[in-house]
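Lab notebook, bench 4. Still working through the backlog of constructs that have no structural model yet. Next entry is a single chain of 156 residues. Request: give me the structure tokens for it.
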Amino acid sequence: MRRPALLALLALTLALPSFAQADTLTALTAAEVPALLKPPAHGERILAIWALDCAYCESNMQALAKLQQAHPHEITLVTIATDDIAQRQAIEQRLRHAGLNNYPARAYAAATPDRLNFLIDPNWGGETPRTLLIRADGTHLGISGELTPQQLQKLH
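Model written out:
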């Protein structure tokens, strides 16, 4: 009887690092952008690009989180703050406040943020919020500004 409980506890302990990763803000450099843009093996990856000074970003990210929760096996959501990783505390606080601290989160870590903007999406001028959908078939869809219900439907 104790052995199954011990094995369950061991499995949970080994799984904890993977849960912790979602709650950890990590730096995004130019070298890491290609991996982020690589089409997923299946489904879709949504990059929710935002900034601390963005009025609509929080509501956009919350709408994207609801979409991901409705399709957890098809959609992966990653938040990307265009603010410097040096503002870690403020970024993490905003993500917690918005209820988004359980998603993978990145923040810019580059001397030239405009270069990261271009590498993420050459058609993007840097305005936030920006939503970038990457499908398994390699197609991309970029949407700037506050998402409408019609645009949310296009994302899945």
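Notes after review: The beta strands are 25-28, 44-50, 75-84, 105-108, 130-135, 140-144. The mean pLDDT is 87. Flag for follow-up if needed.
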